[in-house]
Fold:
Amino acid sequence: MRIAAAIVMFVHGVAHLPGFLVSFRLASLAELPYKTTILAGRLNLGDRGIQVMGLMWAALAIGFALASVGLLFRLPWWGAAAWAATAMSLILCVLGWPEARIGALVNLALGAWLLWGAPR
Structure:
């Protein structure tokens, strides 16, 4: 279970990278078009604001990768890193709704696992 959870966290981290790439216009994805709004178009951040969001997506990709490595090697800080990445990712997914709705579900599942199934 530990290895499977580490893989899920790592893959979820990789799934954050399109948010970074699109916000800096380094990639164009049909499923994730460039936009400067969050909260389902309710708040316009402009180009710079959406780039800040993109940096947060990238930071969370790194956070999930680190948490997954920590879990694999049973490092004492992995749980705190996983909780922080999961909580922040859930916030970004809500801000990026509806495109990030699947990520929100993954975060809820990871949070439940961290509460009830994760090794201590």
